[in-house]
Amino acid sequence: MSTTPTARVYRPTPRNLALLARILAEGGLVAAPTETVYGLAADALNAKACRAIFRAKGRPANDPLIVHVASIEQADEIAVLNDAARKVAKLFWPGPLTLVLPKRDGVPDIVTSGLASVAVRLPSHQLFRELIRRSGCPLAAPSANPFGYVSPTTAAHVRDGLGKRIGHILDGGSAKIGVESTILDLRDPKHPVLLRPGAVSREALARVLGRTVTVHRRATPASTAAIAPGLLERHYSPRTPLTLVRKLTPALIQKTGDKHALLFMQKPAQISDRTFWLAEAPNAFDQAAHNLFDRLRSLDNGDWDHIHAELAPGSDALALAVNDRLRRAAAKR
């Protein structure tokens, strides 16, 4: 039996965009690029279409979806935007920031895992916004990969993971940022909570809101409906076991086996055939975030028994995002 994926990959021509938008408007699924990672999109107001996302990904129903919109006005049709939400949206949208807010009545329960809140985002990726505009639909879109596996940042990643389960992939090149959006809970605007770190920093949000933004520390149990996606203890995980360290020192390296890959945060001085890195220079966290999922996938597809990875130093927003993804990827099965 052939193992060749069946999904078709489309170039972003006007004709193809019109076709893919029509597929979405008619209740179909389309994998498409955003500035963070590739998403598996469906009409967010079509419960049947959104259930198809869960089936294709093997995603549990207690892990809600993010609804992507093309304007703040469209966001207001999905969620109840308070003054704090409008303030941060004005500064950070379009962009890699998701807001959790009370939902409007028309949003299906399958999208929100039955909760009274909804996660909403206005992406900056022109192709994704064009699909929203042409289809006339807000688009629910989790990462376009089998649930729990390393997120996709290229069309090839999507095809490798979901090529047998979906029919349509829009190729927009490599995702610019490479890790998922920052998620901010603003259901209570007096007590904003950072649920997931991303490219928009906690400090920047606190400055705009004029108040402290607390950090959500506890992983969501697998049996409980999550407030937002990406909060499970184990997520973004390669099949190959992954161990995290603060620093890959010579003493630690000496204890590892020949079939253990070494993933440095920056390019090391000494390189061997089992040495890999996320960035060329110190503190290049934008490069590390951009390369993270691609590198984890590459190592996972290699002949390695184990991956040892360094954590990013410091408190830069993308350093924290990289570490969040690495910790969830390394969590015990």
Automatic annotation (TrEMBL):
UniProt keyword annotation of Coiled coil present: no
UniProt keyword Transmembrane, yes or no: no
E.C. designation(s): 2.7.7.87
GO biological process: regulation of translational fidelity; tRNA processing
GO cellular component: cytoplasm
Example GO molecular function: tRNA binding
Record's function text: Required for the formation of a threonylcarbamoyl group on adenosine at position 37 (t(6)A37) in tRNAs that read codons beginning with adenine.
NCBIfam families: L-threonylcarbamoyladenylate synthase (TIGR00057)
Name of the protein in its database record: Threonylcarbamoyl-AMP synthase
